[in-house]
Amino acid sequence: MKQLDVCLTPDLLHLHKLDNSIVVVADIFRATSCMVTGLAYGVKSITPVASVEECKFLQDKGYIAAAERDARKVEGFDLDNSPFSYMHESLIGAQIAMTTTNGTLSISKAKSSAVKVMIGSFLNLGALANHLKSEPYDVLVLCAGWKGRPNLEDTLFAGALAEALKDQFMLLEDGTLMAQRLYQQSRDNLLASVSNSSHVRRLQRLGIQKDISYCLQTDLYDVVPVLRGSTLVSMN
Ligand code: MLT
Predict the structure, then answer these.
(1) Smallest CA separation from ligand 1 atom 7, residue
(2) Ligand 1: residues whose CB is within 6 Å?
(3) Sign for the pseudo-dihedral over CA of 230, 221, 25, 71
(4) What is the pTM of this model?
(5) Which of 39, 155, 180, 193 is 20 to 30 A from 187 in CA distance terms?
(6) Rg (CA), the chain
(7) E-assigned strands of the chain?
(8) Beta-ladder partners of 48
(9) For residue 227, which phi and psi values (nearest 5 degrees)?
(10) Which of 55, 68, 98 best tests ligand 1's pocket when mutated (most atoms within 8 Å of CB)?
(11) What pLDDT was estimated at residue 236?
């Protein structure tokens, strides 16, 4: 039987064998929520890069470039990291380069050793879970966290995916069981369960509120982003 595991922060990724695993990267506030939203609204592809310099390089080559550090848009780039910025008609068919504080770094760390890298959010939870049931591989949910520390919302998502796949995957490690129990206790009011989390407070200090409730909505889209080479595209 396949196994689903949870890595609470990229700094612990070295503890996991990935040679038979699909890595699902989760950065709920807000990188992976942006990626899913953009692809659902018709963005052609998203190229995640770890550094601002790499993002600038692609911008100079004609990509629309999204850059965020510490929840703020980086000066000189086209898009910030609000999912609402990815809903515009002008982005239909666009190739986007993206760098964020934690989410794209997590993708960069996983892509060299995972069988596949896929993108998870509450927004595409059901579609992602259904796809993973059809794959022969184990799954590692990689929580992007914040600068090496775990966070509530990514762990909550990991628990939600574990709960959705508990009949098809073995859930053995304590980190996975912690995430699952967190979700079981929080599922009826996700917003309340993260209301005092560090990144919610950070976003609110910046006047960002509507992104929070948006990113916690479940099953808005059926897109399942997968990394093909260095670029994310929708599988369906
Ligand atoms: C991250 O990479 O941690 C997030 O995308 C940051 C944010 O969007 O606020």
Answers:
(1) 71
(2) 27, 29-31, 68, 71, 81, 100-103, 144
(3) positive
(4) 0.98
(5) 39
(6) 16
(7) 2-7, 21-26, 45-48, 64-69, 72-73, 95-99, 116-120, 138-143, 169-170, 225-228, 231-234
(8) 98
(9) -85, 120
(10) 68
(11) 77
Residues 107 and 24: their CA atoms lie apart, in Å, by: 9
CA-nearest residue for atom 8, ligand 1, is: 30
Place of tokens 């859930």: 171
Stretches in the chain below the pLDDT threshold 70: none
No. of H helices and E strands in the chain? 9, 11
**195 phi, psi to nearest 5 deg:** -60, -30
Burial class (CB in 10 A: 0-12, 13-18, 19+), 167: exposed
CA 230 to chain CA centroid, nearest Å: 16
Separation of CA 31 and ligand 1 centre (Å): 5
Per-residue tokens: 149: 């520390």
User: Pairing between strand 169-170 and 116-120?
Assistant: unpaired
